[in-house]
Amino acid sequence: MSKYYSPAGGLPPQTHLTTERAIVKEAYTVIPKGVMTDIVTSTLPGFSNTRSWILARPISGFATTFSQLIVEIAPGGGAPRAEFEPGVEGVIFVTKGKVNLTLEGELHQLEEGGYAYLAAGDIWGLENVSDGVVTFQWIRKAYERLEGYEATSFVTSDAEVEPTAMPDTNGAWKTTRFTDSSDLAHDMQVNIVTFQPGGVIPFPETHVMEHGLYVLEGKAMYLLNNDWVEVEAGDFMWLRAFCPQACYAGGPGEFRYLLYKDMNRQIKLT
């Protein structure tokens, strides 16, 4: 069994209560794991034997910088070329199974916890040559180039990158950063944030970065704007710029989520 949550699809029975935990507000959205049913999936151009749950897309007046998908590829499926839009960078993070990634002609096998940053303009594709389903998160963003800097593709994994403890937390709050925050070649980061039971974000963070948060493991209470919301593995949170956020991880196990944020660029005014 994978340590990272992946949806199984299906459809609730007719006896299932329609009451759910989905929330859509001006400053944030919560898409709970129970929403990830068969009837809300989308097919993707260029892919075979594949379905996706589209979690986020740019919306005027809300979050405008990125899209985020859960993609599920059945055995034998995939896409010889996955990204067709010019100037779009991406990150994939495998939550279940294993998949072959061909990046600029080089083959990489990504297993659970596998992570790839895919630079804008690079040609890459995916193929599921295993006997089981592969599921991954796919974050896409229009790359904002900066003179003198250029992001390059790389492949790594959750297991290969040592988490960094946040200051004065005694390891209760750690962040796995796959790129250096000060590297101006990157205009976004997709990190993994880990809280030990009892770990907290001890103040309401309020900042310019937009966020997509997919819960990989565990459960916690999360402050979104002025609402405390209980979330668990498989839930997705979508935060517009300046939405206050904080967290309390009550346990019993670790609380971990995949975090998108835009960064390292001046604000365009014209």
UniProtKB/TrEMBL annotation:
Q: Which InterPro entries match?
A: Cupin_2, RmlC-like_jellyroll, RmlC_Cupin_sf, UGHY, UGlyAH_cupin_C, UGlyAH_cupin_N
Annotated Cupin type-2 domain ranges read 70-139, 192-258
Coiled-coil blocks? none
- The question of whether Methyltransferase is a record keyword is answered with no
GO MF annotations, alphabetized = ureidoglycine aminohydrolase activity
User: CDD domains this protein is in?
Assistant: cupin_UGlyAH_C (cd02212), cupin_UGlyAH_N (cd02211)
Sorted keywords for this record are: Hydrolase
Q: Fetch the PANTHER family from UniProt.
A: (S)-UREIDOGLYCINE AMINOHYDROLASE (PTHR34571:SF1)
* Protein name stated in the entry: (S)-ureidoglycine aminohydrolase
The organism encoding this protein is Arthrobacter psychrochitiniphilus
